[in-house]
Amino acid sequence: MLRLPNRSDPLLGRPLALYRAESHRIEVVYVAIGKMTNRLAEVKPEDPLEFWLPLGNGFPKNNAENKVQHTILVAGGIGQTPFLMYCQNRQERVSLLYGARTASLITCMDDFRQLGIEPMIATDDGSKGFSGFATDLIEKVYQSGESTQLLCCGPLPMLRSAFLIAQKLGLSCFVSLETPMSCGLGICFGCVVPYRDSENADWDYRRTCIEGPVFDAYKLRWDC
Q1: pTM metric for this prediction
Q2: Can you tell me the distance from the alpha carbon of 209 to that of 195, in angstroms, rounded to the nearest whole number?
Q3: Sign of the dihedral defined by the CA atoms of residues 106, 177, 30, 71, in that order
Q4: Is the terminal CB of the chain with fewer CB neighbours within 10 Å at N or C?
């Protein structure tokens, strides 16, 4: 969570993914679209900022118990931001499918190329790359016979579409939700989402800021 200090408007912080972290600095990426992010864009070098981190969980790691041969990353809008550090030192094949409304909103792709990952880009208006949605590219890169997982971050309609494709192909699918958060500490319960541990369990709720923001897509409710 990031907040502008000594200000009451906006009062609350905003949840932002860590794009890059080093011993002496961290980087976040955002689009200046609202009051908070426009004021954040006015911050000058050495101006103070308030952070409380780390919060929540992350995407599952590939290990002996979760041996994946192909990871498909699906990102929409600003949803590429949690994936750069995830992609470092990957052993499996990685495909990054990135969607934006138009070419002028595409960003950060060269950072992935430096890791040896060539993004597949989709734009709603066809101004760059594939004309359509990032989710339309999933079946183009999926290869049957490979142990494959789908990791997604972006707008809710994109996440739902990705989950339905994963369900059809029988793939594991984890999504990072962009649910609005207030406290970031699990106190206010303002960021809860419907959740259940199994198909036979009753629906309950989980806090995106503490139990998330990454969830097994099969345990979320997509029809509400």
Answers
A1: 0.92
A2: 14
A3: negative
A4: C
